[in-house]
Predict the 3D structure of the following.
Amino acid sequence: MDSSGVQVSSENNSALLKGYYEAKLDELESKIRDKSENFRRLEAQRNEINSKVRNLREELQLLQEPGSYVGEVVKIMGKKKVLVKVHPEGKYVVDLDKNIDINKVSATARVALRNDTYTLHKILPSKVDPLVSLMRVEKVPDSTYEMIGGLEKQIKEIKEVIELPIKHPELFESLGIAQPKGVILYGPPGTGKTLLARAVAHHTDCTFIRVSGSELVQKYIGEGSRMVRELFVMAREHAPSIIFMDEIDSIGGSRMNSSGGGSGDSEVQRTMLELLNQLDGFEPTKNIKVRRRASG
């Protein structure tokens, strides 16, 4: 072969070698990507397993600890002591554990006390009846003001009484005006009272709690008023909140003396008095708005 033939053969070999090594490099890079992805997946699984192990260890430690007394905070006594009521033993002035922030302890809060030293070592969640918890509406209604016809005046008043204090509370504070605590909607059935409440819940970014007045009428003495208290406890925990009380006339009868009416009427009256106490009592309700609906 001449020199030109040898040159052509050498160029062909170089091209073949170059293609071979490029294919090998692509194959190796693909394997590296697969290995890296597999490594990240295994690392994520390891972190998840470690998190579960830590949680299980914490639960095991809690299970191995001796039981605690459950009490209710009555009053804050300085920076490191609180007055706690333990049923049925009585009231005690107790110390705080080092991991408890005094600013997070409030009156009526449920707390756990160590059974040997009575030291407050944990703040417990509020005890709320499951029936009351179900009154909280998780999904915001999709009703809007545009769906309501012929109630422009009522919509304007609702916005001033309910929406404005929630969205701009600083306006009332700067003027020294107390915020409205609630409204009552009355009228014949089918005039848009419930639709108004659904629209307010849609346009305000707050917790919406719906309760029927008949649900607060209980058979046993004190059950209705207890449900009202727990209803407002839940509303304060998830403030700002709107409580929509449907069929308020079922518990909103006129007051009577102790000699009039039966035990059922007395229980309904106690429930209504507890509702009035929650609205006008010592506990502040500026972040809670109550809307009542009655058929007239």
Remarks:
- The chain is about 45% helix and 20% strand.
- The longest helix spans residues 3-64.
- Residues 1-6 have pLDDT under 50 and may be disordered.
- The longest strand covers residues 68-77.
